[in-house]
Write a structure and sequence with these properties.
This protein is mostly helical. The chain has 2 domains: 44 residues; 133 residues, Lysozyme (Orthogonal Bundle). It contains 10 helices and no strands. Helix 1 runs antiparallel to helix 3.
Length: 213
C-alpha cells in the first residue's frame, strides 16, 4: 500500500511542468518527464517493502530451524541404525520427512523396521525392499525410499484402502492396527520401547554456544 501511494505521489509531478509549458516544448518535456516517472515507478514496484522484507526474513529463519530439527532427528535414526550395523542406515532423513508429511511420530517408521526386520537385516525374502513386514511379506517395493513413502502414507491414514484402520489414531492405535495384540502380544509396547531408544519425541537441536565477549 505504501508503494502504491508513493507511485501516485511521483506520478503527480508530471502535472506541474504542464502548467508552465506550451506547444512543442510542452510535448517534448512531458514525454521526457513521463519516461523518468515510469522508471522511478517501476523501481518502486520492484522494491520489497519493509514488511515484506521482514516476512521473508522470518520465513528463512523458520525454514532454517525446521531443517535443523529434521537433521537432528535424522541423525538420531541413522546413529541407531549404524550402532547396530543395520542396512537401513542412511534412510533417517527420508523417514523423518515422510513421517512429518503424514502426521506421524518421527521415530515410528524406523522403530517398526527394527522390530520387524532388525533395520533391514532380515527384510522379506520373497519380495523386494520390504523391511516393514508389510502385507505379510507379500507386497514388495522398487526401493527402500518407495517403501518408506508408501508405509508412511498408509499409517498416516492417507491411503483410501487402509484409511479406516489408521486415520485419526494415536501412535499406539496405529500399532494396534498394524499388529493387533491378539496376534502379537505387546507389539505396540515393543515398538514404542525402540522409539524411545532412538530418541525423545521432542528432540531438538542443541542451543548454539555464545562466545564470551
Amino acid at each position: 500500500m505504501k508503494n502504491k501511494n508513493l507511485i501516485k505521489f511521483v506520478e503527480s509531478f508530471i502535472l506541474l511542468p504542464a502548467l508552465t509549458m506550451s506547444g512543442a516544448s510542452l510535448g517534448n518535456n512531458i514525454g521526457s518527464i513521463s519516461h523518468s516517472v515510469i522508471g522511478i515507478a517501476e523501481n518502486i514496484r520492484g522494491t520489497p517493502s519493509a514488511i515484506e522484507q521482514q516476512s521473508n526474513a522470518g520465513d528463512l529463519v523458520r525454514n532454517d530451524v525446521l531443517a535443523q530439527k529434521q537433521k537432528v532427528k535424522a541423525d538420531a535414526i541413522d546413529s541407531y541404525f549404524k550402532k547396530y550395523n543395520m542396512p537401513l542406515y542412511g534412510m533417517g532423513m527420508k523417514m523423518v520427512l515422510e513421517a512429518e508429511k503424514n502426521g506421524l511420530d518421527w521415530r515410528l517408521l524406523a522403530a517398526i523396521t527394527v522390530r520387524e526386520s532388525t533395520g533391514g537385516k532380515f527384510a522379506c525374502k520373497t519380495v523386494g525392499y520390504n523391511a516393514f513386514g508389510w502385507g505379510s511379506c507379500k507386497i514388495g517395493f522398487s526401493s527402500n525410499e518407495e517403501a518408506i513413502e508408501r508405509i508412511a502414507l498408509h499409517l498416516g491414514g492417507n491411503h483410501p484402502k487402509t484409511e479406516k484402520y489408521y486415520s485419526n489414531k494415536t501412535t499406539i492405535g496405529i500399532l494396534h492396527s498394524y499388529n493387533p495384540p491378539s496376534i502379537v502380544p505387546r507389539y505396540a509396547e515393543q515398538v514404542i520401547s525402540i522409539m524411545n531408544a532412538i530418541g525423545s519425541v521432542e528432540l531438538t537441536p542443541a542451543p548454539l554456544a555464545i562466545a564470551n565477549a
